[in-house]
Amino acid sequence: MDTPLREPTFLILTALAREPMHGYAIIGEVVGLSDGRLSLRPGTLYGALDRLTDAGLVELDREETVDGRLRRYYRLSPSGDATLAAETERLRRNVEAATARLRARRVQPLAPRTAGGLA
Q1: Distance of CA 91 to the CA centre of its chain
Q2: Chain mean pLDDT for the chain
Q3: What gap in Å lies between CA 48 and CA 43, rounded to an integer?
Q4: CATH architecture of 7-104
Q5: Sheet with strand 21-22: strands edge to edge
């Protein structure tokens, strides 16, 4: 995947990085990973999982019946793992660059403005 991942996609892949999960567990993990900023509705999550499966980033791990309902567990595919690693590195470099700029701005005082001129 050449384009940056949208935050919900990044967080879904991140949730699946540790172990296979079923849909409602993924929803809970995304809430936790985002400190409550992002809460996926089931329809949104399952649509995203379908797209991620079609893209080869996520795979069906297993299915089981719980209380008469089918529960599907998903896992990262090798391609999904590589995509998540690449996106994590891209974000790390961005944070590093922004942190360096903010640090440099705090260290160097702003040049005094001369009176009377328009900038």
Answers
A1: 10
A2: 91
A3: 9
A4: Orthogonal Bundle (1.10)
A5: 21-22, 69-76, 58-66
